[in-house]
Amino acid sequence: MGGCESILSIDIGTTRIKAGLVDCNTLEIAGGGSVSTPISYPRKGWSEQDPEELWKAIVQAASAALEGFEASRVSGVIFSTYLAGVVLLDRDNYELTPIITWLDERAHGLPRELFSGVLKVSGYNILHLVDLLRLTGGAPSKTGKDPLSKMVWLRENRPDLFAKAHTIGTLKTWVLAKAVGARIVSPDDAHLTWLADTRGGRAVWSPRLARRYGIPLEKLPRIASPTDAAGKLESGAARDLGLPEGIPVIVGAGDIASAAVGSGALAAGEYHIYVGTSSWIGVHSTRRLLDVRHYIGSLLSAKPGEYLVIGEQEIAGGMIDWILDATGMDYSAVEDAHSIPPGSEGLIATPWLYGERTPVDDPHAKGVIIGLTLRHTKKHLVSAAVEGVALNIAWAMEHMVRLAGKPKLVRGVGGGFRLRTLAKIIASALNTTIEIISQPEMAGVRGAGALAAASLKGSSIESEAGKIPVSWRAEADSNASRVYRDLLQVYREIYSRLKSVFRRLS
Hints:
Strand content: 15-25%
Number of helices: 16
CATH topology of the largest domain: Nucleotidyltransferase, domain 5
Shape: globular
C-alpha cells in the first residue's frame, strides 16, 4: 500500500473548472477553486475552446485550491474531463485545432453512410447500426455532437490538419499530454467515440470501425484504466500548477464516470442524478444496456468490468440561469419557488435550449414557455423553469427504469442540488426520496479524488466511494407528486405537437 496525503483533483466542466485538495483518507475537500471556462461560438452550431486559455483557467483554479497549502503535501494529480471533445495534436503535442466541445453540432448528419441507405431504422442505416451495436453497444447521435462525427468533419473539411495530426484526441488526451506528455484516453472516453469494441467490460480500438469511417487507427490515443498512472508531472506543467515535478498523475475518467463515483451510488440499482448546466441520470450495470429510440446507452464506468447506463439531457440548470438572467432575478428566487403552487398556475417551461438527447434525440427541439397569462409574474416564470427541469428528468427516468430497473436509492449530485427547492421539486416529480451528498457541486472533484486515492493506496474504488457522506434527504411532497404526474402528460404532448414546428424553425 502506497503513501498518500492529499490529491489535487481538477474537474474540467463545460462552463466551469473546479479544483480541490482531496484528503486521501477521508475524501474531505480541504481547499477549493472555481473558474469559469472560456467558450466561443464562432459560427451557428459551433462550440470551441482555446487550449491556451483553457490551460490558464486550469492553472488559476489549481492555484486557488492550493492557496495556503504546502505543495509538498500533494501526493498526486488527477483530472476529470467532460466527454466528447475533440482536438488534433501534432508530434510535439501542440494543438493544431481548438478543442471542439461536446456542444458543437457542425458535424450534424456525419458520418453520412451511417444515416443513409434504403434499409433504415430510427434514421440509421440498419447494417451499420447492427455492427455498431454489437461492437460498441451504441452509435453516434444524428446531432453531430459525438467524437466520431467531429473526427469525420475534420477529415473532410480540414484535410491538411487531419493529415498532419499525430494524435486525434479528446479533452482527456489533451490535458494528460500537457501534464505528462503522454497521449492517453480513459475507457469511458474511448467508448463514446464509438470506435472501440467494448464487449466484456473493456475498451479496445476496433480496426474495422476505424477503417470504415476513415479514422487512422495509429492516430488514436492509448486506452488506459482510470486508476492507472498516466506518468510523472513534467517540469512545465509542475511550474504552472505550483507542484513538485515528478509526482504521479492518474489517468482518471470523464465527468460522468467521476461524478458517478463521487455520488457514492456504485451498487446495482443505486441511481444518481446530476444537475448542473446539463443533467443526466446514471446507474451501474454489469451488462451493456441500450435504448436507441430514447438515446439511453451504456458507457464503460470507472469500476473495472462494469458499465454506467446513462440518459443525458442537454440543458437543465442552464434553463434556470437563462430565466434568472432574463428576469433580472437571482438564485433566491429559485429557493422561493415553493411559494408558487405546484404547476405554476398553468405555466409550463421546457429546457430544450440546445436540442435534446434523452428521452428524445432531437437537435431541433426548442425551449418553450406555454400558458402565459396576465396573472403570471416573474416568480411564476422561475417556478415554471424549475418544474420544467424536474419534469424533463422525470420523463427520462421513466425510460431509464424500464431499461435498468427500479431504483433502490437515488443520490443527487451537481451544483443544482445545492438549491433545496429544486431538489425537493425533482423529488416530487419522481415521487421518491433523493439523498443529497455533501458538497454536491464537487462530486466530480471528490469522485476523481477517490479514483486517485484507490490508485495511490492500492485500495478499491468501492471502499473509497463508501466514505462519501450524505448531507440531507429531499422528500417528495405527495400533493405536488400528483400534480406533476398529470402535468407530465401535458409536457409530453407539448413536444409531440410541436416537434414539426421546432424543425421548421431550425
